[in-house]
Design brief:
Four copies of one chain form a homotetramer.
Chain A lengths: L6 H6 L7 H27 L4 H9 L19 H14 L1 H23 L2 H16 L6 E2 L1 E2 L8 E4 L5 E10 L7 E8 L7 E8 L5 E3 L14 E10 L4 E6 L7 H9 L3 H22 L5 H32 L6 H34 L9 H9 L10 H13 L6
Amino acid sequence: MTVHTEDAAMHGELLEPITPEGRELLRLIETHRPAIAEAAPGNDRNGTFPHDVFDGLRKDGVLGATVPSALGGLGVERLHDVALALLKVAEADASTALALHMQLSRALTLTYEWRTGPAHARALAERLLRGMGSGDSVVPTGVKDIPRDRRLTTLTPDDDGGWLLTGGKTLVSLAPIATDFAVYAQTRVPGERSRYAMAVLTRDTPGLTVMDNWDGLGMRASGTVDILFENCRIAPEDVVLRGLAGEQDLAMLAGQTVSSITMLGIYTGIARSAREIAVSTILSRGTAGAAAARTLVAEMDARLFTMRSAVAAALATSDRLAYDDTGDPQERGPAMMTPFQCAKMMVNQMAPSIVFDAQTLIGGSSFVASHPLARLYRDVRAGGFMQPYTFVDAVDYLSAQALGPVSNG
Amino acid sequence: MTVHTEDAAMHGELLEPITPEGRELLRLIETHRPAIAEAAPGNDRNGTFPHDVFDGLRKDGVLGATVPSALGGLGVERLHDVALALLKVAEADASTALALHMQLSRALTLTYEWRTGPAHARALAERLLRGMGSGDSVVPTGVKDIPRDRRLTTLTPDDDGGWLLTGGKTLVSLAPIATDFAVYAQTRVPGERSRYAMAVLTRDTPGLTVMDNWDGLGMRASGTVDILFENCRIAPEDVVLRGLAGEQDLAMLAGQTVSSITMLGIYTGIARSAREIAVSTILSRGTAGAAAARTLVAEMDARLFTMRSAVAAALATSDRLAYDDTGDPQERGPAMMTPFQCAKMMVNQMAPSIVFDAQTLIGGSSFVASHPLARLYRDVRAGGFMQPYTFVDAVDYLSAQALGPVSNG
Amino acid sequence: MTVHTEDAAMHGELLEPITPEGRELLRLIETHRPAIAEAAPGNDRNGTFPHDVFDGLRKDGVLGATVPSALGGLGVERLHDVALALLKVAEADASTALALHMQLSRALTLTYEWRTGPAHARALAERLLRGMGSGDSVVPTGVKDIPRDRRLTTLTPDDDGGWLLTGGKTLVSLAPIATDFAVYAQTRVPGERSRYAMAVLTRDTPGLTVMDNWDGLGMRASGTVDILFENCRIAPEDVVLRGLAGEQDLAMLAGQTVSSITMLGIYTGIARSAREIAVSTILSRGTAGAAAARTLVAEMDARLFTMRSAVAAALATSDRLAYDDTGDPQERGPAMMTPFQCAKMMVNQMAPSIVFDAQTLIGGSSFVASHPLARLYRDVRAGGFMQPYTFVDAVDYLSAQALGPVSNG
Amino acid sequence: MTVHTEDAAMHGELLEPITPEGRELLRLIETHRPAIAEAAPGNDRNGTFPHDVFDGLRKDGVLGATVPSALGGLGVERLHDVALALLKVAEADASTALALHMQLSRALTLTYEWRTGPAHARALAERLLRGMGSGDSVVPTGVKDIPRDRRLTTLTPDDDGGWLLTGGKTLVSLAPIATDFAVYAQTRVPGERSRYAMAVLTRDTPGLTVMDNWDGLGMRASGTVDILFENCRIAPEDVVLRGLAGEQDLAMLAGQTVSSITMLGIYTGIARSAREIAVSTILSRGTAGAAAARTLVAEMDARLFTMRSAVAAALATSDRLAYDDTGDPQERGPAMMTPFQCAKMMVNQMAPSIVFDAQTLIGGSSFVASHPLARLYRDVRAGGFMQPYTFVDAVDYLSAQALGPVSNG
């Protein structure tokens, strides 16, 4: 008789970690959950960052969870386990999870760089990862250019063999405690075609300004601010050049997936939390017998199960392909991104609907600002805006996968 | 570095078999798909059973796929693989898949009986399984009493140590080629409490009438008829007694899950087929550029992915628990049934919506009776009525799991 | 104190006629509803046209309901009243309503022609209307060219001052008892630009073939066939020329709205009927206490109310503008079409969902082909395909109204 | 030819007032809309009441809009017109509309009292209405008892022929500028059965505490606070006794409908505003060509039309019945409440979905706290909690209308 391992079932619903390292990470997080939950309401109200919480996470090694153990980290490398960890944090506070995600996903992509990149990139990655592993370094990423002026963030050669970084990035979560920033930019070198590049700079770099300007509808404790660059000098070894700007490179979808897919755990955690609050409230009130209450709870549980399953399935594909370099990178990119986008589209629909129904179940008391569901209602809306992609862009991406580009239509 | 097996990803979306036996079953089915697809329109129109198709399946051992190899079958035992096989058949014809499901799921539950039942039940199971393994026996089940008279199907003692079966069952798919029937009944023994029982009788049993009365909105080729019993004599060794009638036995939910969960593959297959027809049609027409077309296709693909993931996750849990006798049976039952019902609730919502949207994409031509989507539109509606449970009953079941019984509300 | 008339409330939900003529039409229909309902199952099964029903409607003047009383008709001219009449017929049989719609909407547009058209068109309209008013004439329209060959239906000059009609039309409901056909075509005159035109021809015109080829998923008794033209001679007085082909003429949206908007009543009637069947069934079974049943019924009733209100509002706008020639015709067209399309988009979503939920409420018995809900499930799907517009085209139309054409985007 | 009035169309979509008084009210509101819109962001952020706005509205007679002209008001009495006025205010600021609703609906129900009540109640109503008509009185209502202690608000006889009011009410909007409160209570008289009663007390009544404790998720400028009563003396002429407590009185549904139905205009206004912001934003950005953008806008417009139509239809029925005393009051109550609840259920689903989609259209910039859509996202959620009824209670109400009470099920 075939041996039936527990493995598949555990994957299938994003309920259990699948590696020992993931299990250890969850154990650590469990010890911090009460403090995270306790700090959440105040930081949400005031839009302040949970410094104490992150001090605690740092001391216990959580900020280095996805750093390889050889470099001082916990060595969690399965996206499934990272997403599950973020889910558990998000059940206590989604803002904290969003900020933590910045660090955990950064180490995942740096590890890939460290394992497979050119020597130069490997050295940079190793330096950063060792810092992250010891808890000394916190390295959020700046992906999105500040929209107002739509001025791209650029790297121009300085007079010394290095680079000058100018521009700005928005929505940089975790910035309040950042020690370094990893910034996506484009080169501007006279006589050469522009290239994509990642530049790393320390927080004390002259010309760098870290704003304190986050005032979101939700995710208010995530420290998601703008950072500005004014001729920041970057040493040549702190810049990794990539492909030519403007050329579509489907291979890059793999890295984008790794960077972002674990955020699906956050919105799953929000939905779980909302469901728990609603169910426990109506049970304690004795209103769980109402016809609509029973119907809504059944439908919520079915959706929650489905959402967890879809997220777990997308994570499983990414986990399978993330370290698999054997295939065509131009195929691997979409093979990772497409399940991610399918799951994200459903999460962005189902998670808000579960929070909405949770409020419906318990009524007007959830409309008071201090009610936990009021925070979840605001936090959960962030999911639709996480890159990649928004709904509008996801329709373009997925329909192009199925139907080809519009011009073929 | 951790070894990343393919396993999880393959489970995650119900795309690939997970055992060699499952792979062999899929290979066999692939050879029959053209014939199944070809026979489908005519049998749908006329409400006739695909005898030729089933002759072919029998010859190739597909009708014994889930019989243990020791008893002459293919030995497929993972529910995942069975569901995937039914998905593939359903892509060609859902009626054929529904009828085939009867045989495949029967052998699964008989195998469980053969492995874990009392001696008497094991012997009966072995006899039936050997017949199914060789292709000689086709054994659909009669679960649902004929609703009109709501007269229960009963077993009363005959004068000879055996039983007399009286009553009738409805919605017995696969009946046109049945050699035997497995019938759920209740005993009526003077002075004893009534018990649940399974009675097995051959098709030529005097008093048995197999009607030819199926005329469904859809699933018209599934041979889903009524069978009537008028004092049919059943030998004592062909009856397996179970628990006391009227007592709730949560352990029975495990068997019910095994019997029915693989049907989720059928509705997933219908949805996939509808999506393929729609996409290929608009591509061939050159209308794939319309805004609504692109939006609908992206949303369909996201839902299809999600549905597949939810089904795969529910199957994974059932596969893990199906042969696991170590826990409390009263807990195992709900642990299998709850994910099944969550997945079923979503499938019963998403699969019809995908077929609906597929018709929307290609317009009025899909409203002609002979169009493949017209058949899928009718077939897919069956999903909501498959036991266990309908939506109304599933709300009762799931809400009781979450909230306790109504009286607690 | 302001006088509060009953008027608004009656409009608001498509429940009562708003003119005496409308009331008389409803009275007449009420007398035929039992016969319509009785004939429905058989004609649905066999795909046959309800000749007896239409004989009865003709005798009572229903086929001339929308002909002005001066020309022998009942003089019903409010679209609201026509839609309500079709709703009532559709509650008994949707196919009959769809066929009847052909005649009633034809007389409405001919009446407009008779009142406001050029002398030539007035004469043609009057002749047809008198025939329709007396019950002698039945005049369905052919709008949609047969899709296979996509050959346009054209009028070329004959050698005698008249025209030759060649081509074919599909989805011509009511054709089995048609005495004449009103056919949309384009002129092909050497040296001239092509024009839109309406040609009227009698059923016995040489070269005209009325097929008997309707075999729909639903609406099977509507007599919706193809008609073919092979050099049919049309007298010059039986052709009305309109604008230049290929030029967008927003004014034409007014006539298209009048021709089609009353069909919304049909799908409202189907939904009402489905709701009634479901509610009466669960009441008679004693299963109306289930949590999901109560939730579904409440939601169905809310949707049904909403659908009726949206349809009534769109009809009110059309009724206000239909005979109002004072404004800019290029504005009147969209002012009528936009509310119609908004209402239609919701009807095409809500009516099927109500039928779906009705089946969910009563379960598997509604999956038998002979169950009334099985017919409604098939019939209601037609709504999405009625012109103008399908969902895909409606998105293009409505988004262009809101956002301008795509190139502006 | 029948005269086609504009009337129906104007009703049908809640676009135009239907009485001269309503038109005048809208004219007045139009002059205040810029100030209302300007004050909104700051008051939302700080949770402060827009005193200046209400000073302005008072000066122009808007606070007496629904007072009969004989008593110094504008004489607006059609619910349609009141709802439309609130819609227009809500487009500028929903909180302001919610607070204004308190005053406008209070005068409507007092007018009914003044016209049809017993002498004693007429006198009280007249006094209050004259104050409201002159702008001197602002009279919000306290309906909902403070939930924590669930202690009912009660009237006990004092030693002087009057009453003592004790208890508390929550969610009393407009309280910051209230001059009087109309409070629903139950009598406690030794030896008598408890009755429902309305007590009116001035703000300076000893024992009355008006809290400043509103801190909502949304509607933050509506001044929705708790008020507490500690043995407040109420003169006998300021109490109106109604039916026996605990007895179901369907007639009371009429007054409840009049009190609350016009709030549907508020949520329609929020949805309209959200749609306008989204459309103008994507047009100004040049992103209106995206497939998903076009699909979402078309669907939003269809839903917006439908929502407006449903609200208008429910208002039309209430307007017809509100002053119609000719029928059975036990039938009039449900005849008004049922359409109201159907419309409310759809509004509570559609308005949030339109705001959600508006955010989806314009992306992450709408997730900043200061973005207008961020306020609308919070404000619109209030709709689900407005009495009567929440979704859970509405399911009970509507299903009982359709199916009878649960015990019959």
